[in-house]
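Tokens for chain A. Residues wanted.
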């Protein structure tokens, strides 16, 4: 279970989907991305990782991967199942190019490492070809009747060749007759010198001024919008134009006959063709994932079936992308080293505002979700990655006027739902745990809820400013561990670096001084906070 419903938006995964969609070559791959879901099967996740690894090898190799033009032909194939139906030239052309691509991709992936034919070069991707039947004969048959632009060739049948030959001869005859009439009319000053024969309603006609139409003699078919030109079909070419109409009708009937014959040959293979569409959708999907992985410099880790997070140099891919857009310095984003193990399963991150706590939380949520959707993640290859059955998140202002919930009430409702669901395979992500109400009460409730999370065996990353939670994580229960967002106290500036094992200082008084708040106010605030609190903060 992923909690809440807008989980993907809260961690930014909707942007990852958009980036994947932009890398697809067809609508088929986009459908795969839209259907991509959180997986809890380690075998399926690792299969996806291996497919991406192999596709990255292909993309970085010297040979071009033959994933060229292919189209979504599902609807036309489903229609073709009905006897008597046929594919129009455009649909047939798209089918030919799609099958040609499928044939080439299957041949590329089903190559072996040696002459013994014992192992594929790309076994994970080759497994996707299982059940896919190459159809070179259908490609050849379609290519025999279509030209390189997707139109029926003249020699697709002897009858069509004869019809088109007669069409060309008749049109040539009409052109010669019209040319003679036009030259004569031009010499007599009846039409302008730059006038040429034109088509109206499929018939060759001459454009003349309305007052001269009787001098040309023939049938008026149309006039221009301005009324200054009428289009006359001279009597000498009426019969020839009628013959052209008949020949064009014969041509269309012969083309339909050829297309129906081709449809009859293709119809027995519609199910295999639809299956090949699914194969190309899978390949397009993997190709998009590999392209995204390369652009984000991701690794494809081996995922264990049990929970663990042991990441080295983890980076938030969306934040890194934005920083690169505004800075030429590639080191602008500080990588994250984070570890959750059976012994230290809940991390309490503390530190100053704008110090990177929420970024750590969102990085954890986004990368874990990416992994369990079968995507590579931007971490060092030495990182260890586990699997969770549930991910729950409570982040941001959840105030709801419609449901009459304050921000704190909404947080409490989230805590209630988390406690119902939490188990030893649950990852809980909470930002600013316990805030929204009176600090002492909020801190006490948060500490009690934290104890229940531990009782359920849950895992988690939680950010807080509450001292009692920092002290809880410093206590005897090693399953909860502190993490500090480091701060340069000399510069009064965040370092955006997570140090596990230490609680963080909020640096509230130091930040107030940096922002120019009068020293008298700060001293008074320290007195009001009490010596014990100020001492704890200073020791931190």
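Reply:
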């Amino acid at each position: 279970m992923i909690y809440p419903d807008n989980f993907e938006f809260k961690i930014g995964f909707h942007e990852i989907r958009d980036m994947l969609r932009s890398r697809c070559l067809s609508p088929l791959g986009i459908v795969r991305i839209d259907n991509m879901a959180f997986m809890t099967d380690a075998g399926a996740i690792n299969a996806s990782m291996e497919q991406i690894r192999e596709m990255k090898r292909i993309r970085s190799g010297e040979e071009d991967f033959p994933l060229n033009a292919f189209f979504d032909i599902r609807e036309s194939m489903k229609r073709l199942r009905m006897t008597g139906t046929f594919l129009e030239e455009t649909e047939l052309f798209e089918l030919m190019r799609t099958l040609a691509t499928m044939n080439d991709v299957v041949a590329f992936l089903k190559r072996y490492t040696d002459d013994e034919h014992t192992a594929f070069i790309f076994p994970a991707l080759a497994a996707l070809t299982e059940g896919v039947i190459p159809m070179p004969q259908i490609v050849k048959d379609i290519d025999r009747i279509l030209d390189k632009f997707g139109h029926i060739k003249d020699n697709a049948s002897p009858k069509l060749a004869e019809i088109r030959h007669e069409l060309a001869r008749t049109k040539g005859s009409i052109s010669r007759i019209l040319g003679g009439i036009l030259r004569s009319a031009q010499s007599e000053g009846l039409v302008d010198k730059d006038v040429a024969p034109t088509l109206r309603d499929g018939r060759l006609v001459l454009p003349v001024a309305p007052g001269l139409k009787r001098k040309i003699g023939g049938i008026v078919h149309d006039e221009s919008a301005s009324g200054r030109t009428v289009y006359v079909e001279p009597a000498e070419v009426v019969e020839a134009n009628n013959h052209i109409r008949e020949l064009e009708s014969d041509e269309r009937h012969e083309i339909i006959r050829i297309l129906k014959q081709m449809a009859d040959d293709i119809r027995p293979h519609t199910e295999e063709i639809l299956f090949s569409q699914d194969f190309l959708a899978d390949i397009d999907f993997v190709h998009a994932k590999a392209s995204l992985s390369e652009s984000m410099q991701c690794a494809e880790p081996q995922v264990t079936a049990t929970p663990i997070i042991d990441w080295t140099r983890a980076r938030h891919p969306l934040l890194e992308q934005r920083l690169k857009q505004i800075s030429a310095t590639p080191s602008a984003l500080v990588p994250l080293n984070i570890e959750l193990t059976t012994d230290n399963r809940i991390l309490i991150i503390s530190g100053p505002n704008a110090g990177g706590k929420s970024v750590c939380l969102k990085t954890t949520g986004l990368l874990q979700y990416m992994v369990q959707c079968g995507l590579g993640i931007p971490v060092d290859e030495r990182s260890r990655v586990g699997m969770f059955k549930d991910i729950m998140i409570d982040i941001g202002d959840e105030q709801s006027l419609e449901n009459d919930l304050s921000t704190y009430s909404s947080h409490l409702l989230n805590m209630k739902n988390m406690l119902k669901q939490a188990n030893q395979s649950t990852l809980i992500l909470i930002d600013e745990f316990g805030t929204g109400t009176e600090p002492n009460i909020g801190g006490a409730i948060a500490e009690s809820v934290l104890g229940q999370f531990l009782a359920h065996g849950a895992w988690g990353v939680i950010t807080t400013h509450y001292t009692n939670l920092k002290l809880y994580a410093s206590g005897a229960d090693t399953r909860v561990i502190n993490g500090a967002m480091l701060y340069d106290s000399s510069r009064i500036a965040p370092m955006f670096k997570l140090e596990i094992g230490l609680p963080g200082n909020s640096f509230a008084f130091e930040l107030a001084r940096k922002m120019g708040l009068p020293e008298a106010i700060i001293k008074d605030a320290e007195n009001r906070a009490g010596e014990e609190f100020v001492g704890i903060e200073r020791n931190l």
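The first strand starts at residue 2 and ends at 3. The two ends are 37 Å apart (CA to CA).
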